[in-house]
Write a structure and sequence with these properties.
It contains 16 helices and ten strands. It is of the alpha+beta class. The chain folds into two domains: 240 residues, 2-Layer Sandwich (Beta Polymerase, domain 2), CATH 3.30.460.10; 69 residues, Arc Repressor Mutant, subunit A (Orthogonal Bundle), CATH 1.10.10. The strands form two sheets. An eight-stranded mixed sheet has the order 3-4-5-2-1-8-6-7, with helices on both faces. α1 crosses α2 and α7 runs antiparallel to α8. The protein is globular, with a radius of gyration of 23 Å. The chain starts with a helix and ends with a helix. About 4% of the residues have low confidence.
Amino acid sequence: MNFSKTRIDKAGRALARDEYRSEEEYFDLEEVFDEYRKLHLAPLSLTTLEIQNWLAAEEGEYCIAQRLKRKPQIVRKLKRLNTRLSQLQDIAGLRIVVENNYSVDELLRFLRLKVSENQNFEVRRETDYRGQGRDDTGYRAVHFLIEREGFSIELQIRSKQQHYWSETIERTSVIYGYYLKEGEGDQTVLTYFKQLSNAFYEFESGRRLSPAHRIDLEDLKQKSEEIIRASKRGSTFDSHVNEGIIKTLIEKEKRLGQGLNNWILVFDWNTGSFIYWDSVSRDPGEAIGIYVKYEKEFSSEMGYEVVLLGSSNVATVRQTHSHYFGVENRDAVLGDIGESLIGFSQKVDLDIGARQILLALSRKNLWGKRTVSSETLRNHYCQNILTYESSFQALVEKGFILTDGGVSLSLRNKSDIDGYL
C-alpha cells in the first residue's frame, strides 16, 4: 500500500491523541499505522545484513541485532514530543554493541567510509551523546541515522559499559513503573541514573571517582532503592540470567539455516518470564501480521512487552537486549561504586524458570514424602515454563528437589528454598 504523509500522520494522531470520527475510522487508521511500520522492515533487514557482511571481514568483537519500534513506544513518543508519525526517525532500529569507546570511534570511521561508498544509503545525521550524556537521563551512545529507500534507519552504537547502563535503566523502569529514559519518575531516581552514567564515563575515560563522589553516589542509590521499592506501579522481582531459553533458540536457529531470522518475543514483566518466543517468517508482511496479532493479545497496560527482533545469531540477543534475560556486571567498575541498583549487578544462580518450579511445588505443599509425578509437574503445574528442562536440572544439582519415587522439595534445604521464594 502507498499512503500520503497526511494519512500517515492522521493515523498517528488517531493512536496518540484519539483524533478520529468513528470506531470504523480508527480501525482503518490503525491498519495504516501497522502497514507504515511494516514498510520499514525490508530496508532495515537489508541494512543489517550488509553491515554484518562488512564487519565479518574486520577484526574486533561486536554484537548486532535489529528491531522495529513497539507500538506503545511509538504512541508515547508521539504524545511526548507532539510530533508527527511521518517525522519519527527511529521506527527501524539497529543496535551494535562493541567493547569500549575506542571501538565505537573505530566503528564510526568504518561506517562513514562504507556508507559513503554505497549508493543504497544516505547519511542523514550523526549524534554523539557520549561526552555529556543526554541532559534529562545521562543516556550515552552514538546515533548514526541513515536513509534507505526513503525510510530512516537509526543505528545505535554503544560500548559495553554504555549498554550496561541503558539495559539497567530499562529494567529498573519496569520494576519502578515509570519510564525513566523518558524523564518520568522521582527526580532522585533520575539523578541517580544520570550520576551513574557520569561515573561510568569517568571509568571508561581512565579516571577514578573521588571518595566523596563514591559516597554521594551510594547515598543516591540507597534513596532510589527506597523510592522504587515503595512504588505501587511497578513489578518487583530479582534479576536473573535465563540461559536455558537461549540454548533452545540456538538449536532452532540451526534448523532454520543461515541468514537473518525474525523472532517474536512476548515477555511478561509481572513474572519476569517469557510467554512466547519463536521464529517467524522472513517475509515482512507475515512477520508484521504476527507482531500486530500479539500486540493486541498481550497489551502493555497488562504488563506485557511484545518485540520483533532480527538477528543472524540469536545468541547475540542475549547481549543486545539483555534486560529480558537479567543484567549482569559487565566489568569491575561496579565493584568500586557499589552495586548498581536492586541487585542488577548480582548474577543470580537460579533463573526465573527454576524459581517458578519451586513456587509451583511450594503452593501444593509438596515437601519431603509428599510427591507429585514428574509428568504432572511438567505438563500441568509448569506447562508455561519454556526453560523447564534446564531449570529443573539446576534444582536437582543444588539438591533443592528430590526425585526418588516422584518429585518433591527437600526439607533439609527448606531455609535456602524459602530464601529464593
